[in-house]
Amino acid sequence: MRKIIIIQFILFIFCFYNCKENSIQNKTVENKIIEDTIPNSNGGKEDSFFTFKNWNSIDKSKAIYQSPEFLVKLNNYLDEEKNVGGKKVYINNKEINFIITDAYVLTPFLFIAGNEKILLIQEEDEGGIYGYIVYYFENEKCIKRDYLNISPVEENLEIDKFIRFSNDSQVIKPLILTHKYYDTNTDEIKSSNQYTFIINKTIEKNINNSVKHNDINVKQYSFYGLFKTDCNLKGNVSNISFNNEKEGYLYLYDNSKLVAKMMIELSDDKKSLQYIGVNIIGERFDTSKLASLKKRETIATFEIINNNLQIFWIGFSQEKFLTKNPFGKENSSILKKCD
To answer: Per residue in 211-241, pLDDT tens?
Structure first.
């Protein structure tokens, strides 16, 4: 009996180690299969992702952020003639852009992949995060600018816990690391797998400020057509409809109720929208302000990005009327061209 028990014990030990070894081998094979089936989407490039880097030094009082060979300054600026304020962005003491914004806080973040860099500037105020301005650099030269209309659902989430950037040969793909995110353009919480935004690495000449960036695109750009934040949105939503390359209508809605239908025109340099008059007045329109509205007053400026308009809303600032952006909760919104 004792011999039988000893033999059974030896067989058990043998079986245990043999099964464990097979399990380890199976896991190794399984991991190898997973690794082998993951496509190398950046054509064999060593750096498939940008790496988040902390700043070596920060001077918040002067809005200066510094890392080795990369100095960022965000200087306040006010264009008194156009009554437009914002921040001028300097990289290594060279101005690259003028951000028209009323956000109280702008926070830059840096991501690096070899000689390529991404500068991400977060716009926010007491109401939350508006979104992120993205600048793509190659060999210290600013190549591309874009905008991400996203924010984390969770408050005070560190940036590297919220977003990551894949670095393919032709495009950059922002990847949201949380299960859900807040779409600041539509004011909706969405699943992160719905976010498929892609930034093309196409070189944009003379990107060193927003005016030059606009000049290049506006020459061949057709304004004719309908512009909305989302072309799939049906019903009564704020939109711009151009009848030709100069004139059009601005439809202002608040919770599906028409506030006003306004006649608008492009400025001569095609960089801003000018108020011409009112065709239809809704019940939520303050008629006491009507007489004080000035013809050809600039109510918005814009930039052309990826065939869409990035609108920077001003409203009737002197009259303190309709100053809230009708296209979103922040002062800037992307209006897509709906053909």
So the answer is: 333 443 565 678 888 999 888 887 788 999 9
CA 185 – CA 147 distance, rounded (Å): 11
Buried b (16+ CB within 10 A) or exposed e, 289-299: eeeebeeebbb
pTM, two decimals, is 0.54
State the residue for tokens 């969405």: 190
| Per-residue H/E/C for 243-302 | CCCCEEEEEEEECCEEEEEEEEEECCCCCEEEEEEEEEECCCCCHHHHHHCCCCCEEEEE
| pLDDT tens digits for range 29-55 | 333 323 333 334 344 444 489 999 999
The whole-angstrom separation of Cα 12 and Cα 276 is: 90
- Do 309 and 302 form a contact (C-beta atoms < 8 A)? yes
pLDDT of residue 325: 85
Q: Distance between CA 211 and CA 98 in Å, rounded?
A: 9
Please report the beta strands in 80-115, taking only residues with DSSP state E, as ranges in sequence order. Answer: 84-91, 94-100, 105-113
Strand partners, 58: 65
**273 CB-near residues (< 8 Å, 6+ apart):** 240, 250, 264, 265, 266, 267, 298, 299, 300, 301, 302, 311
Residue 191 is inside which H or E element, if any? strand 188-191
Tell me the CB-side half-sphere exposure of residue 264, using CA atoms within 13 A.
25
**Long-range contacts (CB closer than 8 Å, 24 or more residues apart) made by 236-245:** 238/326, 238/327, 239/335, 240/264, 240/273, 240/309, 240/335
Q: What is the rounded distance in angstroms from the CA atom of residue 325 to the CA atom of residue 329?
A: 6
Look up residue 253 and give its amino acid. Answer: Y
Tokens of 249: 């209508």
